[in-house]
Amino acid sequence: HPGVELLLRIAPRTLVYEDLRMSRSDFAFVLATTPPPSLCFVPLRAERLVFVCSPRHLLARAKRVKLKSIIKETFVTAGQHSDYVSMANEVLRSYGIENYTVAMELDNMEAVKSAISLNLGIGFLPLLGVRKELRTGELSKIRVEHAQLECVLALVHRERKFFTPAMAEMVQFCRKSFLLRNVGFKTESTA
């Protein structure tokens, strides 16, 4: 659409939600495990979370690993204030896992993936963030005996948000592109 300005910004979910509430953004895409309060949360697709390790790690060769035993490993994560760490912690808590050993906290996912590839620990990351490294062999997926662990890629906006025709078309395009697939939790507030 001519004249439409599209700004893509990567930010922590708390800032994204604040920008939406303050009308600094029209809508956002987030990975989340729970809907934010007082915002419309439209699930687009389920996104798997996977445990990964260096190809040199013993778990890379294991056929299947029990979830409880994987937690005995040391982890490389982003800081405890990171969105994906808090999201991973929510998912793990839902399976009764409260604590695990963190060997190293780094400031971004690329650094975390690099440290894991150097065999400095294992990680628990969104599959969309490690697909390339799994394909190239830089990382190995740990096959865990458990239900699939997931978060949701969702469109988030203010309640009763007016969408211009161009915005509505963008939202429809995204909904079709992401092809709502296996989203396994309910939301109170969906559009």
Quick synopsis:
By secondary structure, the chain is α/β, with parallel strands linked by helices. Helices cover 30% and strands 27% of the residues. Strands 1, 2, 6, 7 and 9 form a 5-stranded antiparallel sheet that branches. A two-stranded parallel ribbon has the order 3-8. Strands 4-5 form a two-stranded parallel ribbon.
Walkthrough of the structure:
The chain is an alpha/beta fold and 191 residues long. Helix content is 30%, strand content 27%. It is built from six helices and nine strands; from the N terminus they run H-E-E-E-H-E-H-E-H-E-H-E-E-E-H. Strands 1, 2, 6, 7 and 9 form a five-stranded antiparallel β-sheet that branches. The chain has a two-stranded parallel ribbon with strand order 3-8. Helix 3 links the parallel strand 4 and strand 5. The longest helix is centred in the C-terminal third of the chain and has 14 residues. It is elongated, with a radius of gyration of 18 Å. The C terminus is likely disordered.
What is the string of SSEs from the N terminus onward?
HEEEHEHEHEHEEEH
Q: What is the oligomer described by this structure?
A: single chain
The outline comes out as elongated
- List the uncertain runs: 181-191
Considering the chains and any ligands shown, give keywords for the structure.
191 residues, alpha/beta, five-stranded antiparallel β-sheet, two-stranded parallel sheet
